[in-house]
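HUMAN: Forgive my ignorance: could you write out one protein's sequence and backbone structure tokens?

ASSISTANT:
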Amino acid sequence: MISGENISRLTFAIPTFGGSKFLRNAIDSIFSQTVPCNAVVCAGGELPAEIRDHMDFVGNVKILVVDPDPGMVECWNSAASEVNTEFIAFLADDNLLHPAFAESLISSLDLNPTADFAFSDQRYVNENSTVHEAETVRMKSFFGRDCLAE
């Protein structure tokens, strides 16, 4: 049902920090979704040329450059303030999305119209595209996500 829609209902707000070496992959995973999505990237400091050049080919990406780099949270706030779709999702510049993530998120929110927030779980996937359980546990512990209730 949703996959037939041509209008994006979801925009991803992405902060960049450091070298943004995985940002291109994060953007590509947004445009590999089963439903159309937009992205707003807030680049803290200068965005690498190869990423800027790539953005010219993927469309639906707005880039904000804030110099000097204000940090991840302010970049997320800046990106979020530019979103004008029905839904917003926050994505780190070094994370990738499962191709059905956006469709699943929108479906969940449509089924629960009084919901203001939705949270998803994060898994560490290795180079063979399989979940690496030990790294997933380590990552969740590092970011304090191991303390979240089901």
The CA atoms of residues 11 and 88 lie 5 Å apart. The first strand starts at residue 10 and ends at 16. The mean pLDDT is 81. The chain is about 30% helix and 15% strand.
